[in-house]
Amino acid sequence: MITTYTENIHDIALNTFEVTCFMFPMDEWEIEEDELEYPDGSTRSIVEFEGAAQGAMMINPNDSLLTAIAANMLGIDEPSEEEKEGALCEIANIICGNTVPIFAKDDKICVIKPPRIAEQDEDAATLFPNLHHEKVNVLLDEGIVEISIYVEQD
Amino acid sequence: MAINILVVDDSAVMRSMIKKTIRNSGVEVGEIFEAGNGQVGLDILAEEWLDILFIDVNMPIMDGMEMLARVRKNPDTVDLPILIVSTESNPERIEKIQKLNAGFVHKPFTPEILRERILEALGVLESQ
Description:
The complex is a heterodimer.
Chain A: H1 5-21, E1 45-51, E2 55-61, H2 63-74, H3 81-103, E3 110-112, E4 116-117, H4 124-127, E5 132-140, E6 143-151
Antiparallel strand pairs in A: 1-2, 1-3, 1-4, 2-6, 5-6
Helix pairs in contact in A: 1-3, 2-3
Chain B: E1 3-8, H1 12-24, E2 29-35, H2 38-47, E3 52-56, H3 64-73, E4 82-86, H4 91-99, E5 103-106, H5 111-121
Parallel strand pairs in B: 1-2, 1-3, 3-4, 4-5
Helix pairs in contact in B: 2-3
């Protein structure tokens, strides 16, 4: 069986959300249409990487998921904006750190740079032009996250 | 016996998460100290009685690998149990960590895995 990059990213993301935030995967048919709130890009985390693989990952959760990530990771009911952004960056770091080796060209170390919150007007396609792009939506019981990876390929 | 722990990570969220997971692991915990980089970690280590350290790899000012090397150079802490917490999967990097007599916790981790690694590092469980 051939596993595609998007399947790998999806599985890594699901495992990260399950282990770190106690969330569970959902199928689209399990969610009511009016609850299917796709991310609007208002809070996104970018993690760049270099070394054995070069590129960047962008994690874009919807509002309900963003709050749930911080609440579950920190064990608090009402996380602040700063806590939400910090938790999103940490999730992005874990997902990216586990994903990048899939794209590694050799045995060199993959250097994962510190995650950051994207500016509102930052466009990943403009930031990382000419890179191979894979995108996957992950549906969870607490919300939806869109994960994009931009990676240099030969 | 309750153990004193130092968590060294530049992410406040990750420090909170590690602390929460340690408390959920069933290990009897005394005090948990926190540091945002290796230098602050070394300062706390010089002042406090600690049973085990959790160290992140990528941090500003002093990263985890440098902190680990410095702790091992000090005769007082040469055998102190240490766990490196990272998403790292490069075998060379992991081997380097193990050569410095430190355990490795791969992110993401469950309370059960953390408990196992802590007990291994403390010599209560035999490492696999």
